[in-house]
Amino acid sequence: METINYPYVPNRPSESSVLRRLGYNKNTIIDVSDMMRMDNMILRAADFCRPKAKSCVISIKKKKEKSVILDNGLIIESLKLAKLLMNSKKILIMGATLGEDIVQKINHEIGFGDAEFGVVLDAYASECVDDTLSYIMKSESLKDFRLGGKVTKHRFSAGYGDLDISYQKNFYDILKMDEIGVEINDSFMLIPEKSVIALAGLERR
Amino acid sequence: MKGILEFIKNEYLVLDGATGTFLQENGLETGMCPEQFVIDNPAVLEKLQDEYIKAGSKAVYSCTFGANRKKLASYGLEDKAYEMNKKLTEITAKVCKGRAYVGADVGVTGMFLEPLGELEFEEAVDIYKEQIRGLVDGGADFIALETMIDINETRAAIIAAKEICDLPVFATMTFDETGRTLTGTSPKAAAVILQAVGADAVGLNCSTGPKEMKPFVKVMKEVLNVPLIVKPNAGIPQLVDGKTIFDLNSDDFCTDMLDLVDIGADIVGGCCGTDPVYIGKLSKSLKGRKPKPIEEKAKSILASNFETKEIVKNGKLFVIGERINPTGKKDLKEAFKTNDISPALDFANEQKTAGADALDINVGVPGIDENEIMRKLIIELGARMSLPLCIDSSYPEVIENALRIYPGRALINSISAEKGKAENLLPVMKKYGAMAILLPIGEKGIPKTGEERIEIIRSLFDKGLEAGLKKEDFLIDGLAFAISSSESAASETFKVLRWCSENGFKTVLGISNSSFGLPQRRWINSSYLSAAMQNGLNGAIINPNEELLMNTALATAAVLGRDNDFSAYISSITEGQIAGRNEEPASIRDAVLLGKDAINIVKKEIEEKTPSEIIDKDVIPALNKVGDLFAEKKYFLPQLLASARTAKSIFDFLEPHILKSGADIKEKTKIVIATVKGDIHDIGKNLVGLMLKNHGFEVIDLGKDVDKEDIVKAVEDNGIELVGLSALMTTTAKEMEKTLVELKNRVPDCKVMIGGAVVTKDFADEIGADAYAKDAADAVGKAKDLV
Question: Is residue B642 classed as helix, strand or coil in its secondary structure?
Fold first, then answer.
């Protein structure tokens, strides 16, 4: 199966999404100078985050109420995923990582440096890796948009809902995530921490 | 028929609407190649295009949107690109004959150019050349790039077209509702870049409806000197009864389109969801209306992949950061010698933060492959840097290669009247749409007097005009000489600046040259800069990290009335205060509440209060208040940490005072924290550790993926009574239970609190944990309760 490499993804999470992740809301009391300092930290955080990603599109061979069978023979048992892919002919598997350095930097800042910046960087990194998946979905959607193609609004990851975490290994292997420096452990967790794999469906309008 | 560009001068050009959906309704099945389908069933397309022309389209697009070899490869047709494009254009040309213009449609390759993907720029140019040859031979009247998502891929296609034919090139990109292409380019930047590289009409299509495009059309019109194209969808797709429909009917679409025409759209059509009915109504509503002549905007605008930066005659100083230059920088020189560009990337970020408007890029080191290092830097910075670049090299070919691949509108540093320079670089500047610094240095070297320099400027500018360039494309370097070399050094330079200002040229200077040979150069540099600005200087090549220079530039602009409402000055001064965080809080309580430095106040208060009083009456109540504000969601995480940090600094400061007073220092409570076995997430746990430390706990952090045996051992060895366990995944949360059971068996008095993304109070109760902490602040409270 052919995978697409995204050696550099030009996404920049919005400031509001990073602030939201940090707990900011309309009731938050913060003076202008602290808010501007926060803006600067978010800008600095952006310089540390350089996501890499991979994606792969596989045709769906068969769909049942509680499972989906892919062209490569993989049977995925999940009612929720089957529901998400209800109108899809193909599945988009995507993975993204920010690499090990960013995790070390976050931990260093929280433990020994500027903890405020550490948590801002952590929030930015989480948003950034998530946003990378949105970028892949948008890019896939644009490819075929004029012929009525689109990507499902939502995506899904192993370990959530009824999609067993063990599928993470199947998706990991399909994407060859090792090629972008991601490992998987016995508990099916992706290493380093800011790494994700998700699924979406390719459907027609 | 007259040429299409001539047509547009006098009439609105109405394009066609959607094609893909019509083909699908007439036999094109999922998985089929649309281009091959049309070749096999030409009548289907012919019928549609005939309807469009009858409805009022004055140009229709060939069905060649996906007919490049990369896209065709997914159908195994990659070897047929030329002949398919020729054939498909012939089909449209036959329908159009004498009635409408043939727009030869070109779309994306479906691949990303490096560094976003693996496609090299030259390969992209080659792919487009192959396609465009077929389009030209098939009878195209103009090339129509549309639904483009990446600015550099669009540039590659324009360059390809311009290198193999003389046909006009129209280019439209697609922007989402936030006003960005997929790869982050703003509508204004796209307009500047595409017009500069030679597009004959520029605009936007697909993704949204006409209403959503309104703000984008407005900003594009403000910078375009070529016709503006608008080809929106019939609104936004909506899911109705399981079917996607676009939310604008033909009347509403038409009304919204007329708004865009009023703003300045010159070429109009439809994209997804539109059909001949939409185009017919649009065409009818434009009957009798004539487009306004396009107003010439003599603006000097540079652009990165993302944003634009304008050099404004009476605006604040345009700062070009000079740091990416190996002269006098041993480390940078050594890095370039080993092909390492990372220090240059650091310089780029640092200068952006310091307030530069553009970045000069000079990689000149004897013995290195300057072309290769420049290429690497341009690819990296082109993809990530929001500031435009200034390409600085002594070698015209290095400049040309860089301009070719740079996904923005760059500034050339520089073009002089030395032999071969202008002849080589002016055509290159025109081809890639760059701006350039004109350097009044001639064959005889550097002219001493202002008059001689002005003479060279006139001659260079004349050559520029001959090459098709305009005044606003140039910045004139007045040549800053060391003031120590001659009493008239500054006045001769200022003479050039004044002449340029009076004659409508914008100017730039390398300021640091002025102070060579003198001590305390920064004073000279700043005074020189201020004086130069008073003589009309618009831009300077300086180190933006030099605060004195940057502040002088801001203050001088404010004094000279070049800073509207002093906005740049005031905003910069405010930011400076923030960086220093120099507002003194009124009390210790305020310092903790606001997370500000408190030591100066504590130093004063310790003369009147005991350490315990300070801790018990000021710090602890303030910390409790912060905890309450966080719980009420009135504070968010960074504020919580800032307050905790302030509190810790006060505790640390007071510790020796407590010892000195003879009072007992309470022994810190120890806590073991760990992320359980199988789980590698420890950022959240580390945050808990930090907060506990800041609140006076001694934290033994065992890290992540920790076996229960190691946790129990650490508890036994250290006589611990409190443990915090973390897990992020449902699967690893189960490991918490095993650890908890083991702990309770072997150290029955030990209290355990748990937390993590998937952990809940119910889960904590279920497995018998002593407490559940929902976040780092809660963990501190629960830890205090448990001990």
Answer: helix
